[in-house]
Amino acid sequence: MKLLKRIANWIDPERRNWSSRDPELARAFGGLDVGGQLVNPRTAENLSTVLACVGAISSAMASLPAYVYRQIPNGREIDDSHQIARLIAQGPNQHQSWPDFIEWIMASVLLRGNAVAEIVTDNYGTVTALRPIPWEWVSVQLLPSGRLVYDVSEITSIYGGTGGTRRLLQDEVFHLRDRTDDGLIGRSRLQRAAAVVQAGLSIQTFANSLYANGVNPSGALQLAGNLTEKAFQHLKDQFRDAFSGANNAAKALVLQPGVSWQQISISPEDAEFLASRRFTTEELARIFNVPGPIVNDLSHGTFTNTETMLRWFAMGTLSPWIKKIEAEFSRSIFGADSEHRLELDLSGLLRGSPTERWANWKVAIDANILTVDEIREEEGWDPRPAQTS
Questions:
Q1: Who's near 223: CB < 8 A, 6+ residues apart?
Q2: What proportion of the chain, given as a percentage, has pLDDT over 70?
C-alpha cells in the first residue's frame, strides 16, 4: 500500500504544482538581528553554554539503545529482521552510524527548530536509507491539497549536489519539529529567545575586548605641565606601543621627570561582569531545559542534588524528545497501520545508584516480576552458567 501511495503521489499533478507557494511558510534562512547582534545557529554556538546544552542533549540521545518492536497478541517482541532494525545496526546511510544520525537530528532541531531526512526506498517501497538534509537547503511549501512538499536546493553535498532544486513529497521526508506556531514548521529556540542569546553574545564580545585591550584603563599618566599637541600624541603612541596588549603585560614602567602614574581601581567584579556571565549561563541553559550541572555549572549544585538533577535531565529533557522521535518514526516511516514501532530505551539513565538499583532488583525477584538471568541481562552480564552435578 505504501508503494502504491508513493506512485500516486508522483502521478498526481496537484502534488507537484510548483506555483502553489504559501508565503506564510517561507522560512528566514539567515539569522535574527537583535540590537545589532546577528543571532543564528553558528554565532549562538560560540557561546559555550549553547554548545554544551546542544552537545549534552544530542550526545545523550545518541547513546540510547534503539529497538524495533512488533506487536503480537500477548504483547510485543523485538524484531531484529525489520529493515529499520538493520539500519540501526549498520547505519541509516553510507556516511553515518545510528548514533551519528540521531546526534545530527537533535543538533539540527535544537539549533534550527527542524530536522529533515530523506526517506530513500527501493522499487518495493522498502526503506533503504535515511539521508540527512541540512535545514538551510530546504524550502517548505503548503499545497492546496493540504499536504507539504519540500524543495531541496543542494548547493554542495557529500552526495554530489548539482546545485539544482528537487522536490520531495511529504511521504518521502522524516521531519522532526520543535514547538511550532502553525503546526507545520518548527521554530528555533534561538529565535524565540533571541534577546537572551544576543545578551550572551554581547557579554562575550565585551569580555574579548576587555582582555584584548588590557581590561579597563588601569591607570593614567599625570603631567606637571601642558604639552603641545605633537608632544601629547608622541607620548600617547609611545606609551600604548610599550605597555598595551597581552604581550606587554607586567613590564616595568619607567617615567621621565614631571610624569607620574595615577592608579585607577576599576575591575570586572566592580561592574558585576562575572555575575552577569553566570546569570547568562543560567538563562541559556533554561532555554534548552538543561539543569546546570549537565553543562558544568555547579553554582547551585551539591553532592546531594546533582544526581537528582541528572535523573531530572533524563525525564524532563530527554523523555519529551524521545516521544517526538518515536512518534515521527511511526508517522513517516512505519505508517499508522504498521504493527512495528521504534523505541529508544531510557532505562539505562534511570538506574540510580548501585544501592538503590540492587534493592529494586531484589524486590523484582521476590515479587516474581523478573528472573535472575533477566536482571543479569539488564546489568550487561551473561546468563548464569548452568549448574553441573
A1: 258, 259
A2: 73
Q: At 328, which amino acid appears?
A: E
Quote the crossing angle between the two packed helices 319-329 and 48-62, to the nearest 10°: 60
- Cell numbers representing residue 171 in the block: 511521504
User: Residue 149 in 3-state DSSP?
Assistant: strand
The low-confidence residues of the chain, meaning pLDDT below 50, are 1-30, 215
Assessment of whether the complete model's pTM goes beyond 0.85: no
Can you tell me the distance from the alpha carbon of 40 to that of 32, in angstroms, rounded to the nearest whole number?
A: 7
Enumerate the domain spans of the chain. 1-214+267-350, 217-265, 355-389
Helices (H), the chain: 2-11, 41-44, 48-62, 83-90, 98-112, 189-192, 194-212, 229-243, 273-287, 306-312, 319-329, 354-366, 372-378
Q: Facing residues of 131 across strands?
A: 118
Gap between the Cα atoms of 104 and 116, Å rounded: 10
Q: How far apart are CA 24 and CA 137, in angstroms?
A: 18
- Residue by residue, DSSP assigns 196-260 as HHHHHHHHHHHHHHHHHTTSS--EEEEESS---HHHHHHHHHHHHHHH-SGGGTTPPP---TTEE
Identify the pLDDT of residue 76: 86
Report the DSSP pairing between strands 114-121 and 173-177. Answer: antiparallel
Phi, psi of 178 (to 5 degrees): -80, 180
Burial of 55-64, coded b for 16+ CB within 10 Å and e otherwise, reads bbbbebbbeb
Q: Supply the pLDDT for residue 28.
A: 41
- The total number of residues shown for the chain amounts to 389
For residue 157 the three cell numbers come to 553535498
